[in-house]
Amino acid sequence: MNYTLLNDFSQIDSNEWNTLLKESIQDTPFLRYEYQKTWWEHKGGGEWKDAKLLLITAHENNQLIGIAPLFIAEYENEPAILLNGSIEISDYLDVIVKKDDHAKFISGLLDFLASSFGDTWSKLDWYNLPDDSPTLLALKEEANKRGWMHREEVYRPTPRIALNGSFEDYLSRIEKKQRHEIRRKMRRAAESELNVKFNLIGQDADIEKEINTFFELMIQDPNKAEFLHPAMREQMTSVLHEAYKNNYLWLGFLEIDGVKTAASLNFDYQNKLWGYNSGVSQAHRDLSPGWVLLAHTIQWCCDNNRYEFDFMRGDEDYKYRFGGVNRFVMRSQIKK
102 with 164, same domain? Predict the structure, then answer.
């Protein structure tokens, strides 16, 4: 394999990137070209101040074999190489390479990083690797082979709901008390005189207006309001516009008495829904708008044959009450 360092995302074709991603070990919204490029332009909404892009490609017989979207920055008082998208807003990260090429790609990548940038970094620190990623074992084996220190730990749970039938099938598989609670809240909302409606934003929407409405609901939560500082809002707005343009943004609202009262922001990608964020107004709390909207979201998944709802990172109680089962993302470190 021939490895090349690129200085900018403009040096690689977006279609070539996304085509390889479709056959890669992981195909997630966070690894698509437009997401990775947008994340880098905003440095994670200001998460990283001083960072240098290390966008590395590998070719074999003039064919693109692998992509390692990386950057180098001072982290925990050491110069570290991280996956582009680290850490806070990209739930799943990895290298982009087919399974059959993966082991030799990782081995060659570490050789390239050691020979080309050996004096500029002291560790690899890769967050948000899915727990079934072959990259985890490959990094461990390569570190052992080189006599480097290796450490791996669980970083965050990522609860998921497996879906393979109707909404009633889904309800029948969750705990009885929660099943009754979901049904009761949905029925109460449906019978309300306030005309409760679930609406999904279409491709003809005024997307800027809808995104701003979502943000207005999101910041009703004080913690989310603190998170959504101006640089992060700019970052997320750009990401959502790209997802909308590429037809995988899923934005649903619950309207009560003609007013959008709860919002569910997801990525509809690879036949599953990836639950990215949400927002709920303080109005009409008696109708449980957040719960009712989540139930409608899962019902939409069932009606449209999505095989999974992925809550992504976080161990909030409601995820398990709706039937989420833990998977995890990992942190893998290598020190020379």
Answer: no
